[in-house]
């Protein structure tokens, strides 16, 4: 059983009709959960306050967001990553993004106050926002604000980022922090935004050895992904010994994602979620806070996050999707049939260079583990 | 990019009558491999860790002792650079002579040193990721206006190019751009539509 955090205010973080980071993604998933016959009990969060935002972000940057949000012109907005095609601004954006931050922070409070162990924040995951700049659809970093709250309350955090893009903003916020371990698995920055997340980014000062990046080859499939996850993540978490896991569960490593190039399936996500909950049971007495994130194929993200909800609530994952749901969202599904929760098996023909990709990922994972070994003993 | 942009200015030097033992100590303590040799304010040689090893090796016909002098083991014919030399000139000299450093002179005064490591740092700066960005790789015909047309298309979409790296390849120009967007696939599609040969991102090998 997981606490679910979601509020109608999340709709307000809408970057435009053509923008991929659409609030409809989680609405479709919640609607699918309901269509499967589950009553969703939700906690509606308060927006994060300005002071809470300032635990992570520079005041000058926050002032810029507030100014743009109030419709005031700003000369150097683009230099702060604001008002770009990726991260446009609109009147009220400050409150809209604080609502998402408030959700993740509410989840962190539930955990720090001992009122919940498993929390699913059905939004947020704005992992690209840096302390002093916006980037990649993200204005404030809800994950970093939540993690700050947890460490301020004496809880060490292992942050696991399975979004297909490197979790650069969260890593930057805690690069020298010895209470926060960040682990990001992502498509290699050589190929994909934001370009960082190489294995040599290991943290600085007291945080050295606690910032962990596993860059993966384009077209990495489920088997290879799960293999390197297993090589790295359990050992890393065990070596650190956190009190709580914070997970950015972006769904954009799915093969149908229009922005990236990995090749996970819904089946792989189900396995991955179960493994993450296992790790929480094994190392953090079950304490885990999960957010959403990227995931720009509505067809894939709605199903992947429905599976996330079901797994976190110990509910069975059924085969069929109710026809009424598929009919209701037909237009948004872009003609893709949505008859089953899981992908077809196999979902696509085996890639000719599949083994080469898997071997390369193994080599990189091994190199990374070799680099981490001195910090693990 | 000029030599002055990448050289080390706080140069550690030795005198020609210093001992090999002292040189060895300095190199270990500072974690460096090249020492300009200076006498009376003038550069008279360069001594490298390899010079020290060769001079003291048992394989040397007349091996030096630890108290042997730098002037016996150093290279006396020294290639130098000027602070305003282009980095590529320095790189070419070091590459063609297979040497590891160039002392930088202003007249007769030693003002810096550039080593192979500085050139690697320069390479990392040229190819590195300084700002969150996605990668687009395009093969352009080696004709006037190709790059201009490419960047104009990107500018039309209000995107910012953080860096461009180009290199010739079989009569064409391979161009790697870092652009401030997650939506490189979208951009690649538009570029292909405008007739560009986009090498990355490629189409996915499966249908979706």
Characterise this structure.
The complex is a heterodimer of chains A (377) and B (208). Chain A is built from 11 helices and 8 strands. With 377 residues, chain A is α/β, with parallel strands linked by helices. An 8-stranded parallel β-sheet of chain A has the order 2-1-3-8-7-4-5-6, with helices on both faces. In chain A, strand 1, helix 1 and strand 2 form a beta-alpha-beta unit. In chain A, helix 1 (24-35) packs across helix 9 (298-312). The longest helix of chain A has 23 residues, at 354-376. Chain B is of the alpha+beta class and 208 residues long. In chain B, 34% of the residues lie in helices and 26% in strands. Chain B is elongated and about 70 Å long. Chain B starts with a helix and ends in an 8-residue tail after the last strand. Chains A and B meet through loops of A and helix 8 of B.
What is the CATH architecture assignment of chain A? Answer: 3-Layer(aba) Sandwich
Low-confidence stretches of chain A: none
CATH topology of chain A: Arginase, Chain A
CATH superfamily of the largest domain in chain B, called what?
CBS-domain
β-strand percent of chain B reads 25-35%
Beta strands of chain A, count? 8
Structural class by secondary-structure content of chain A: alpha/beta
**H-E string of chain A:** EHEHHHEHEHEEHEHEHHH
CATH class of chain A: Alpha Beta
**Average pLDDT for all residues of chain B:** 94
> pLDDT under 50 segments of chain B (min length 5)?
none
Largest β-sheet summary of chain B: 4 strands, antiparallel
**Strand residues, percent of chain A:** 5-15%
Please give the alpha-carbon distance between the first and last residues of chain B.
Answer: 45 Å
